Prior knowledge:
Pfam families (chain B): F-box-like (PF12937)
GO biological process, one term (chain A): gibberellic acid mediated signaling pathway
Distance between the termini of chain A: 93 Å
Helix content of chain B: 40-55%
Number of helices of chain B: 8
Structural class of chain B: mainly alpha
Strand content of chain A: 5-15%
Strand order of the largest sheet of chain B: 1-2
GO cellular component, one term (chain B): SCF ubiquitin ligase complex
Mean pLDDT of chain A: 72
Oligomer: heterodimer
Protein name (chain B): F-box domain-containing protein
GO biological process, one term (chain B): regulation of gibberellic acid mediated signaling pathway
Radius of gyration of chain A: 31 Å
Amino acid sequence: MKREHQEAAAGGDRRGGGGGNWYAAAEQEKGKALMGTDDGVDELLAALGYKVRSSDMADVAQKLEQLEMAMGSSAAANDDALLAHLAFDTVHYNPSDLSNWVDNILSELNAPPPLPQPPPPPPADDPLSLQFDLPPAVTEQYTIGTVDLPDGSPCKPADVDELQPEASTASSGWLISQSGHQPEVAKSLRDRKRLKVCSSPPSSTITADAATAAAAQQVVIVDSQEAGIRLVHALMACAEAVQKENLKAAGAIVKQISVLAASQGGAMRKVAGYFAEALARRIYRPQPPRGMGCSSTVESAALDDMLHHHFYESCPYLKFAHFTANQAILEAFAGFRRVHVVDFGMRQGLQWPALLQALALRQGGPPSFRLTGIGPPQPDNSDALQEVGWKLAQLAKTIRVDFRYRGFVAASLADLDPYMLLGPEADGGGVEDDEPEVVAVNSILELHRLLARPGALEKVLGTIRAVRPVIVTVVEQEANHNGRAFLDRFTEALHYYSTMFDSLEGGASPPAAVEVGGHDQAMAEIYLGRQIYNVVACEGAERTERHETLPQWRARMSRTGFDSVPIGSNAFKQASMLLALFSGGEGYRVEENDGCLTLGWHTRPLIATSAWRAAGDPLSTSASCRTASS
Amino acid sequence: MMMLLLPHREEEEEGGAAGRRRFPINDNADLLAEVLGRLDGRSLAVAGCVCRLWSAVGRREAVWEAVCHRHVAVGRAGAAGGTRSVVAALGGYRRLYRLCIGPALDRLAGVRRQGPAVSSAARHVSLSLALSLFSIDCYERLGGVGGRQQQPPASLLFLCKPVDVS
């Protein structure tokens, strides 16, 4: 009975208007489907997120009509006033309570909108007004959307129909914007002619109809793309507030970030979540003594290894690092009968089986291979380094490569001395001296930690030089997370980890591990999350994730007396093949950068492999000449 | 009993069975191995379901070695004998195909759109890459990687550790 009434009312009043017929039709369908179950909230609408009592349906429908009329008539408002109004005193109502929402909007529309002074944002004006127009207090659940000013004509059914596919394609395009992006955003608002529908299922025609045509002054429309931009702006504003030591403002914004992040999906939500939590730590506990991930403490060494292993399995960055470094080492070892590799980060030793196999099959037969592994102290005195050594020895025995192993526990690489690395040669007893032993030093994602303490890196590079290696392979993250200003670091890290998380989502899992693919990915995300905490929330000696870009590392290495060794085309081919196998080559890109190889996701390089040798060293230069000629 | 009918001339057909030469393939396992070695991996696995003899021949390392080499681009002329012993030590050619080469070929076949740089370098699975992956797999199987598995009890080396008998 009631439904027929409102259908008639809807059909009659809206004949001149737009989607009324559609609304009526939808209501009709719902009416047919919903027989006798409405003793309270309409269930179908509740499923969409709108709580409307069935008894109120007729009233709500009528008020929506009035709203449409009212909006249609106030099309005279010009753009600037609208945007200014939105900028400072937009009040947001929760449309899930539909009847109240409509009432509120109608009452506000009928009263002339006052334009009060914006309530002064908590102490600092500058960050908020500079960056974006996020109102200071958002108490409602919904995120802030925008509305634009169509040309005043009521929305035709054709438009409403077009809205649906657009809503469903509101993708999680991760628009990372610098602070200068704001004018573009404003312009795009003005230019758009149609309305974005909220991110709940696109069949929420009610909102579409209600908010059609002109200048609604208070709106709650959610668009996930808009919310994404808002999220980024909020993160940047919070970081800037933190940099200015304005912790109250930062604290307020951090809460909003979590709300905004909840409306996103996939990679964006996770990244925003990690960054928000790191910011919160930084705000509320400025000197965390032993926060999670702030420093790799002894207790977390085992956890670190486990997460590192999952990261290895779930994405190709570490595999790329291992394969390219192995190729460079293999080429440098060509022709030598006794070889020694020093690994600065032994962990599970996943890099070395491939090198052992390649040495076993090389022309001229395998050399005698010695491996020195360096690792952090373990919590329960378990000798993880020694176990890894045993396993590698077993493998080497099966493929008949002469193998010797030595493990060193060192809390920091700066504690090493050259004699430690070369030592066993002396006490090896009757080792014939006619065969020179050549040394390769391998460092995968280890050198950047040394930048936390001044002088540590120089000491380690000096140690490396003293060992006289024929090649030094260095793999580091390709990002600048060591800038002086917090805001710069934050921005860089946001770009970098967003790309990383995107690649985790987008890359296919390797064929052998499909069943544990989800598990690996989650652990890999935790691994990256710990890095994010360290970059954002820690300072001083505890901030060990001090990544630097390839040019910066190049400068450091040349300053300390190393020459670059170009990584050959074999490594490039192997890396390309590897990528094709493990991810179908969908988004990953291997690039060559002046003798170094980088792996990135689409256009952004994320990890870089480079090879070096000590400048002016007769042994290493002669070795490289032999490599070049063979 | 499988029969291979060799082509015969028309005139002999009216001679009946006497004119046909029968060659039961199952009487000659080496020839069977040669034939099976020319299949691709999936067909070879299917062929192993035919009968016990075919299953046994189809599991020969030599057959799988032929299959692997047929589907893999051998880069430089490596020492063939050396490769054989290394692969045998790591688990055998059949396992190599199952774990590394087969999935790689499937994945490469499934990739429809490739960038120009990728297609030339990555059209073939290279033997060295497959062997590297194989060695990593063998290493992980030795147990205890990432603390996910128990300590391998297979080694008696624990006896070398001093035992406190006080």
